[in-house]
Amino acid sequence: MMAARSIQALLLVLAAVAGCEDPPRAAPVVDASSSAHAEPPPPPREGCARVGIIDGIEAEPSCVVKRANEDAMRAVLKDLSITLTPEPPEVVGGGMALLNLAIKNTGSSEVTLYLEARPRPTGPRTDWSRVAGVPEPHPSASEVPRLLFPLTTTDNRDRDVDAVPTIAGSAVVPAPPTILALRIRPGGKVTRVISWWALRIPAPAKPVTNDAGHRYVPKTTAISLVPGEYNVTVELPFHGLGREERKVSTRVQVTRTPLPDGGLRRYY
Hints:
The chain is of the alpha+beta class.
């Protein structure tokens, strides 16, 4: 009798515990309309992040973009510090100086530089065949897009010291440039080293024909700059800017070329 009562009491306890358990919860209903309107992932950032020397970036596909806004480069100029420093600042006539170009992001956020790579400078083509000692550029190499930094050297009277010959009729419409996008972090900078020679190229003499009907085409040759201060201007390959907006300048002092043996006369 006692055993039957114990079993009955145990059954009552189990029934009470079962009644206290939470009922099974239904699975949450997923709203198909909310998932369809979820925010898409952000698009990949164009261009490539760079600091330091930018030589050879033309060959990196990650830096190339299909197009760029014409005003995009002008909008970031206020956040850029562009300097051109000669090293050394004084060079003898006929010698060489290195121009250190630095473009620094002075803003508080990342900026993007848009640069143009071209096979050759726009305008008439220089006739290097009429300059003695300078080989003609290889045709295949001249068709490779690259960043160009044209140099102009003027004297203290603002006269261009070079009179390089050009090929008539070569001022053709250039092909569309390859656009490169470089992202620079705040405080970062990109650099480029450009060689400058203290030389000038006089204009060549006009072709002459002798009495026998033979035509001669004289060449010109580079000669040392005379002592003085010269202004060196580099045109940067910025996309969407006018020619004057692309320019950055510096000054280089040219000294007299020393004579051999200190100028002492030789008798042999």
